Amino acid sequence: MTENFPRSRAPFKALALGLALLLSMACSKAPEFVGTLQEPLLPGPSLESTNWDGQPFQIDDVRGKVAIVFFGYTYCPDVCPFALAKMKQLYSKLGDRAEEVAIVFVSVDPHRDSVEKLSRYVPNFDRRFYGLHMSFDQLDNAIEALTLTVQYGQPKDGPGSDSFYYVDHTGSYFLIDREGRLHVKHPPNATVAQLLPDVEILLASKE
Fold first, then answer.
1. Do 75 and 109 touch, CB atoms closer than 8 A?
2. DSSP secondary structure of 54-65
3. Is residue 134 part of a domain?
């Protein structure tokens, strides 16, 4: 007569532990950003300035939200209005969550982009957007903090005139998390489809 001995459960326990470990590793895996992760994470620039509505602004004013910061100027013929239109599309995709995202447009042309000029320009895209006027000293601080490139062209009617000129500038999108840290950077040609997943990752992380 053959005796039935109980089988050892050790292999099954080991398998269960292995699966649990794999699941734990999968759950704890850091989210993968589409843009370039900033390492180490550093505080975003203060961006001390005046908003288009005449109110003072600092980046800490939007702490607790995700902020998308980018630079431009109102006389820009293409890239800057396209960027603002892109942010409008992003808000549409976010729906109610748009209230948790601050869109911050910073002028690199303090000479022409007065607060009054910005007040006629930025709200045409969305009144919830910030449009910042800085002094040249304040702008220099932001340029240094973010290692931006800003170069002013010669006025059409020659140096010293108030005629039209272009401004070449860094057009990247800087994503600042809820804790006020510069977290992710996207190139100027980033699409809404590329920006949206990174914004959603930052929105999912609570301060």
1. yes
2. S-EE-GGGGBTB
3. yes
For residues 74 and 110, is the Cβ–Cβ distance under 8 A? no
Q: Which two tokens stand for residue 67?
A: 């902020």
pLDDT tens, 152-206?
998 987 776 678 999 999 999 999 999 999 999 999 999 999 999 999 999 998 7
Query: Longest C-alpha distance within the chain, in Å?
Result: 110
Q: Residue 170 maps to which CATH number?
A: 3.40.30.10
Q: Give residue-wise pLDDT tens across range 46-69.
A: 999 999 999 999 999 999 999 999
Backbone phi and psi for residue 108, each to the nearest 5 degrees, phi listed first = -100, 10
97-143 pLDDT per residue, tens: 999 999 999 999 999 999 999 999 999 999 999 999 999 999 999 99
Domain with 188, as residue range(s), is: 31-204
CA triple 115-120-125, angle to 5 deg: 115
- The residue type found at 84 is L
Other CB atoms within a 10 A radius of the CB of residue 37 amount to 14
8: in domain? no
Does some domain include residue 6?
no
The enclosing H or E element of 123 equals none
Residue 148 lies in a domain: yes
Tell me how many domains the chain contains: 1
State whether residue 93 is helix, strand or coil.
helix
User: What is the per-residue pLDDT for 48?
Assistant: 95
Structure token digits, residue 38: 């900033």
